[in-house]
Amino acid sequence: MDYFYKQCFEQFHMLPSDLDDQDYNEFMNMLNAKSPEEQTTDPMKDFNNFNKT
Length: 53
Fold this sequence. Notes:
The protein is an all-alpha fold. The chain has four helices and no strands. It has helices at 2-12, 16-20, 24-31, 43-52.
């Protein structure tokens, strides 16, 4: 856990006390979030949008 604190401090400028007050799962979801361009989409929605054009 110390390494995780170190990485968060160096990369995100977050103090360990700030991390202790956070919900771990929510924090990890935020760190692993993908940009809208990288997110997967519903294939049927893409298919329907493709057929409309």
